[in-house]
Amino acid sequence: MDRLARVGVLVTRPQHQAQGLCRLIEAEGGSAVRFPALEILPVADRPAIRASLGPVDRYHLVVFVSANAVRFGAELLGQRRELRLAAIGRATSQALNAAGHRVSVLPTGGSDSESLLAAPQLQHMAGQRVLIVRGKGGRELLGETLARRGAEVTYAEVYERHPAKPSRESLEQLETAWRQGGIDAYTATSGELLEALVGIVTPRCRELMDSTALLTGATRVAERAAKLGLGSPVVLAAGPDDESLVEALIRWHAARERLRQS
C-alpha cells in the first residue's frame, strides 16, 4: 500500500538501528531520509566493568534498558540462561531473545521506565539485588524508584552516546532536500537524540524544524522539544518501536490529507 505516498521522513536513529523503520516507511510508499543524529559506541573499559560487578548470578534481576544495552552488555550474562531478566520494551526484549535469553519481566504497555516500573513483579523489591545495564548518563528514574522500593541497585554502563559528525556535503544535501519540501516529518525517540539533532543541523534546517512534524513515541521528548524552543507539531505514537511510529505517521498523514481536501 502507499499510505505514505509523497511523505518524506527524516530518520535520525543511529545507523545500526534505522533500517527497520526506513523499510516500513518505504513499504508504505514514503521516502526515508537517513540522517543519524547520534553515534552509539561501547565504553572503553568493559572488562573492568565486568570485573567490578562480580558473578552475574548474585543479582536477583538484571534489567536491560534498551536494545543498545543488549548489544553491548549481553556478554555480561555469559552462558547463563536461567537468570531473571527484565526488558524496558519490545525492541529490547526482542534483542535479548535474539541473543538466546528469555525475558521474565516486560511492560504490558509502553516502552519506558515508567511502564516497566508498573509491572507487578517490581512493586516489592526489599532485599533484591538489581543490576541495570544501560548507557552512560541514562535516566535515573528506574534505579531510584527500585531503590525506594527496597532494592540494592548496581549499574553497568556499557555504551556511550555522542552527537554524530555529518559531513559538510551531507548537511548541504539535507538542507536542500528540506528547503525543497522533501522533509514532512522528523523522528526523535529520545530527548538526547533531539538535542543532538538540533545541535548538528544547519541554521536553516533548524528554522525549518519549526514547521515540520516531530514524530516520537514519548511525551517527554515532546516536552524537551518545547524547552528547546521548537515549534514542531508533535505526532505522538503509542511507543518508540518502528511499527507504532509508522502507524502514527499514517494516521497523521491521512488526517492532513483530509484537511487539505476539505
Structural notes for this entry:
With 262 residues, this protein is α/β, with parallel strands linked by helices. It folds into two domains: 8-37 and 166-261, 3-Layer(aba) Sandwich (Rossmann fold), CATH 3.40.50; 41-162, Rossmann fold (3-Layer(aba) Sandwich). Helix content is 40%, strand content 19%. It contains eleven helices and ten strands. The chain has helices at residues 19-27, 46-53, 67-73, 90-98, 113-117, 141-148, 168-179, 191-200, 203-209, 219-227, 242-261; strands at residues 8-11, 31-34, 38-42, 61-64, 85-87, 129-135, 152-163, 185-187, 213-216, 234-236. The strands form two sheets. It has a five-stranded parallel beta sheet with strand order 2-1-8-9-10, sandwiched between helices. It has a five-stranded mixed beta sheet with strand order 3-7-6-4-5. Helix 1 (19-27) runs parallel beside helix 11 (242-261) and helix 3 packs parallel to helix 4. The mean pLDDT is 95.
The name of the CATH topology of the largest domain is Rossmann fold
Count of the separate structural domains: 2
Which descriptor suits the 3D outline? elongated
The spatial strand order of the largest sheet comes to 2-1-8-9-10
How many extended strands? 10
Q: Class of the largest domain in CATH?
A: Alpha Beta
| Overall residue-averaged pLDDT value | 95
Helix/strand class: alpha/beta
Count of helices?
A: 11
* CATH architecture label of the largest domain: 3-Layer(aba) Sandwich
Largest sheet: 5 strands, parallel
**Helix percent band:** 25-40%
The value of Rg in angstroms is 20 Å
Q: Give the ordered list of helices and strands.
A: EHEEHEHEHHEHEHEHHEHEH
